[in-house]
From TrEMBL:
Native source species: Araneus ventricosus
Signal peptide: none
Protein name: Retrovirus-related Pol polyprotein from transposon TNT 1-94
Pfam families given in the database record: RVT_2
Matching InterPro entries: DNA/RNA_pol_sf, RVT_2
Biological process according to GO: DNA biosynthetic process
Domain Reverse transcriptase Ty1/copia-type as annotated: residue spans: 2-164
Amino acid sequence: MAFVQGTLDEEIYKKIPEGLNEYYQENLEGKVLKLNKALDGLKQSGRVWYQMLENGLVEMDFRQSSFDSCAYIKVDQNKDIVIVTIYVDNLLIFSNSVKLKNWVKEQLKSTFKMKDLGTASYCLGIKIERDGKNGSVSLNLTQYVEGVLRRYNMHESHPVTTPLDTNKSITKSITNMEDLTRVPYQTAVGSLLYAAQATQPDIGYAVNLLCQFMRYLRGTAETTLNYSRNNGDAIIGYCDSNYGGDIADPRSTTGYVFTIGGGAVCGAANNSPQLQQAQQRQNIWPCLQQQKKPFGLTKL
């Protein structure tokens, strides 16, 4: 529904699909269709739709966030704020003013064919729960995680309390290729990466170490990110690293997380790009690298 609202600039022709002759009750042999609107499957459809949506938001005096290109922000004369976030044709609208939020929805409806689904309870598999009395929001991926566990026959496994045993060393050598071929490894890792980036940053380090931890997800599928106004709006960051913790790779592993309102908003775990010769330097270097993150977060 979204892509067909975008108008194409290029001349694109398409073969006449089966059944169209009967629909028009005429012989269309030797003819083709000229596309005036974008369709699913065209390589430019996503760009055409996004440009159309962006132009509409800019006309409403929204500005694009310098931290996240999929977030658009508007502040009116009363200092009320409204934020529109975009994922393809799914929009979430956040505002401290009901009047301003309703105005934005009416403007969008007058420009685009869209459906108002009301208060968001799910978005991209993430369950959204609100507590207006306490001023808090909780996010979890319980259904998504349970689906991943079932897909790889881990839903009946015994849960573990930590994502990875730090006493075990994971190396690049493969001792039993037959066991590995039973699992679509790249697909499994991709499934877990989404969980780590969305609502379970606690598995970020383990994801970085080849994802040998599905039994941990079995016991933490209901893990929730909680944000509360009672925790304030200060940006708090945590950063740490180990010094040559992997015998197969002398580079150290660095991890960081930043929180706002008591909940994580961004974080990562990865190998250090540089090989440090001293433990003190390795502990300080990642913190110096990540101190630039808060400047981007303040733009939200």
